[in-house]
Every structure is written in structure tokens, then in C-alpha cells.
Amino acid sequence: MSGEGDRDLELPPISYVWQTPVRKPRRAAWEIPESADPRKLTPAIRAKLQRIVAKAPEVMVKISGKTKTVGHLKSHLEYIARNGELAAETETGAVTEGRRGLRDIQAQWADDAALDHGRRRDGPLSHNIIFSMPPGTDPIAVKDAVRAFAIETFGGQHDYVFVQHLYD
């Protein structure tokens, strides 16, 4: 089925393969194909293809739910911190350990929600996100990456807390 008309069919640059159908992600200037030859691979596209071919480990991100009540928030914080056995880091960089630290976070978030008159009564108090990496990934690098993500995504706008779980 290769006819004369097929030669006229121009495919979009390969970067479109990774774009979400809902919205187009913002790209840096060095990621945009050259206008002289849009089929030419940019350094960003070439690097992404090299990671795919090399089967580089990638993070799995899962939105695992949300909490709507103060009681649910309390139980979720206890669960992720294993009843205070694991350290939890907040948006200020403070590290809380133990049940008392968890109760302080829970109380602060509950108070903030009660004082937020723009918040819907049945709206969520928190959203739960899990970041997972393959075994053997440097745990310090993972924690630093999650911290950087949280600062960039939520910093200055929302409170957050994260806990790192390490498995042998």
C-alpha cells in the first residue's frame, strides 16, 4: 500500500509520542525541533530514546487516594509513618519522629482545614501519592528526588509530608 500519496503524509516529530492527549507539556527551547528540519532529533528526544533502549529504571507514580476526614487523615499518617517508627519530613524540612510528631501534623492540618472557608465541607484534606523505584536504586537519590518534586510541585502553596520506606 505504498503509493504516491504516502510520500505526502508527514508524521509529527517523535516528541509527540510522549505528549498527553489532554494537554501539551511545556518544553524547553532546546527540546523543540529545529524549524529547518522538524524530523531531526533534539538532544532531549535522543536522551529519552537512549534511556528507553538502555532500559533505565524509571519511577512509578501512583495516586493512591485521598483523606476526607480528620480521623482518616490521622490513621493514614500513622500508617505511612508506621505508627511513628519512620521519620516524616514536612514542607519546612522539619523531621518528625514518633506519634507525637504525627499528632502535631494532623492537628495543624485539621485546624487549617477548619479555618479555610473556601474549602468544600466534603473536600479532601490530603491527596496520597506513592513514588516507587526498582530494587537497587540509591535510596538517598530517591529521597532527594521526591523532596525536589514536592518543593517544585507544592512548595509555597500546600503543606506536605513524606516518609521513605526502605525494604531489603
Report the span from N to C terminus: 55 Å
Strand order of the largest sheet: 3-2-5
What string, H for helix and E for strand, traces the elements in order?
HHEHEEHEHE
How many structural domains?
2
Give the count of helical stretches. 5
Rg over C-alpha atoms, rounded to the nearest angstrom: 22 Å
Reported for the largest beta sheet, the result is: 3 strands, antiparallel
What are the low-pLDDT stretches, counting only 5+ consecutive residues below 50?
Answer: 14-20
Counting helices, strands and paired strands, the structural category is: alpha+beta
Helix content: 25-40%
- Find the count of extended strands (DSSP E, 2+ residues): 5
**What is the overall silhouette?**
globular
Mean pLDDT across all amino acids: 79
In percent, how much strand structure appears in the residues?
5-15%
Write the layout of secondary structure elements.
Blueprint (H helix, E strand, L loop, with lengths): L3 H5 L34 H11 L6 E8 L2 H11 L7 E3 L4 E2 L1 H18 L10 E7 L6 H16 L6 E3 L5
Antiparallel strand pairs: 1-4, 2-3, 2-5
Report on this structure.
A hairpin with a 4-residue loop joins strand 2 and strand 3 (95-96). The protein has helices at 4-8, 43-53, 70-80, 98-115, 139-154; strands at 60-67, 88-90, 95-96, 126-132, 161-163. Helix 3 packs antiparallel against helix 4. It contains 5 helices and 5 strands. With 168 residues, the chain is of the alpha+beta class. Strands 3-2-5 form a 3-stranded antiparallel beta sheet. Strands 1-4 form a two-stranded antiparallel ribbon. The protein is 36% helix and 14% strand.
